[in-house]
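User: Run a structure prediction on this.
Assistant: Running it now.
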Amino acid sequence: MDLLQFFTYLRQYNADVLAIGGLVAVACFFLEKLLCKKVSAKLLVFAPFLLGAALYLAYGALFVGNVAENAGAFIQHGFSCGSFATAARVIVRQLAVKGQLSDRAALRAQCVREMLAPYCEIGEEEAKKIAELAETDEAGAKALVLSLCEGADEGAAELVIGALKDI
């Protein structure tokens, strides 16, 4: 992924999602450092999405209003914040380790590996296959996740597939 592709990736998000997603990524980094031994890794995978939804609900309540009418949209945007936070953490790790960004397919595959790590160890090829299927065949991607990760439930599979829509 070159710089132009990176900025193209960022343009798909609104400024509020980028700001809240960045805040979520930083908060999740510190939560992971503080709670890594006290909380299961499965809960830490869901943390960016839960925190993103909570923060976007608060943002919507403060600046938009009509929380009762807009709650669904706020939660959806909060889920986008969690997806951005997950992708941002993967990108920062790639820059810190490799010094370069990978292409979109590799980024999506790495996000799959990170989100499913608490359930099972997935190889790079399986992660790429899940990421590819998530764009064309969500049911097939869900079935593949459930077959590869015996400990994963349908909620985890749906979370991965939903997050890939925003990455």
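The chain has a mean pLDDT of 82.
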